[in-house]
Amino acid sequence: xxVTREDQFAGMSILTLPDEVSAKLIAQWLPAEETRxxxxxxxxGKMVGKALETICAFANADGGLLVLGLADLKxxxxxxxxxxxxxxxxxxxxxxxxxxxEFLPPMGGVQLLRxxxxxxxxxxxxxxxxxxxxxxxxxxxxxxLVAGGTYTRLDRGNRELSAEEITELSYRRGTRSAAAEPVxxxxxxxxxxxxxxxxxxxxxxxxxxxxxxxxxxxxxxLDGRVQPMRAAVLLFxxxxxxxxxxxxxxxxxxxxxxxxKAPIPGxxxxxxxxxxxxxxxxxxxxxxxxKVVMDELAQGVTLSGSGFRTRHxxxxxxxxxxxxxxxxxxxxxxxxxxxVRIFDDHLEIESPGLLPxxxxxxxxxxxxxKTRNDLIAxxxxxxxxxxxxxxxxxxxxxxxEMALAKLYPPQYRENTDAxxxxxxxxxxxxxxPTAWDEVSDWLDRRGTVAxxxxxxxxxxxxxxxxxxxxxxxxxxxxxxxPGRAKRNMAYTKPQALAASAPVSLxxxxxxxNGG
Length: 515
Prior knowledge:
Blueprint lengths: L4 E5 L2 E5 L2 H11 L8 E4 L5 H14 L3 E5 L20 H10 L4 E2 L5 E9 L9 E9 L7 E2 L5 E3 L4 E3 L2 H11 L19 H10 L6 H7 L3 E4 L2 E4 L1 H7 L3 H6 L7 E5 L18 E3 L3 H18 L1 E2 L6 E2 L5 H14 L8 E5 L3 E7 L11 H4 L6 H7 L12 H12 L6 E5 L6 E7 L5 H13 L2 E2 H8 L3 H13 L4 E2 L9 E3 L1 H6 L5 H8 L3
Parallel strand pairs: 2-6, 3-4, 13-17
Antiparallel strand pairs: 1-2, 4-7, 5-8, 6-7, 9-10, 11-12, 13-14, 15-16, 17-18, 18-20, 19-20, 21-23, 22-23
């Protein structure tokens, strides 16, 4: 069995994958067309600029693999596509050097790999050569080329972004926060009980209200007029949602309680009671929302059509953390409230905006959360009895607490096709079978699972494996891979499919080396 080897070039590590891993990957690529996360290029002198654009586009989108030395499928078929990096080794060297110097901000998250291959033709015809793969991770930042241009990835190919689109992407990535921008709200609207409670815990500040807000970075002077930051309005105003409505954004929380397991649209929706709207400064929104939700959960629900009463058993710490994250990390430029939905068998919390700073539903368990709105998070800590802001550890706590309660882990989903993009975290009121832990671990390492895999992993027969897969799919834990026939069906986690994350070639290598 081959071993992955690491070399250094131009200050970057280049891993050489084992022959058997390389052969498997190349066999997958030979009939493949380019996608949103996969691009092939022959190596030429003109390749470097286009390759840099693609790496920039991958980083600004969802990551991807740039395979150098493999011709386009339109020009060559099968093994005739394999030209290798040897076709122009100098161009590859130039690209490696420029990876360190040609991006603003500097590019991280690029891993170079060499894949041994049998060349089709070229200077080393009949000899073994290499493909070079740039494995690009989705970046937490928005990158541009030093020579000019900021790119994103389309289904096939790249597109340069306009200035407006760069700004929009900065908001979506969380590198720019609407909470840190001034709004034309009268400062006297912030001289509230919430402001006095804040001062009581933080300690006295010198000067009047204007000078105090300026001194802690919650106001700014523009054209001779002092305006509060949006964060200050959210933290201290009695009705921040009403004040910010004039600026095209909302800032309230709405709680819905449903009969059944999903909303039923139409003239008579399946609401169990009138929705509740929770307003006020953020510290109070959090406390009131937690109380309303926990009171509803404590009452239990009578399952529709059965008369059977069941209790919701989520740990209170998990529910509170999910609400805190929604309020603190939401995108406050978007015109939508936070929605909390309570169903017969699960709880959903939906907040406007996507996950910030490179976090994805597939990586949040190990990476934790990252703050989108630093001004809000920093100043919430200065209130009496502040919410528990764990600097990224809260999400990990949620997974751990759900596991201790023998419940399924929190399920994160980014809603990118909605009119207003949002993030939903779902807590399932279902005890998980022990088989799920093993299958979940398999999916985290391998990406997909089929019936035969579950048989082997969980030690069950084919019928039991099929029932488990069906239940997990109905619960939203798994989704079927598109384009598969029924007898060849395989499944993945919805967050992995939504992200369409490229296969980690390093994971592939470690699996084949017993890792």
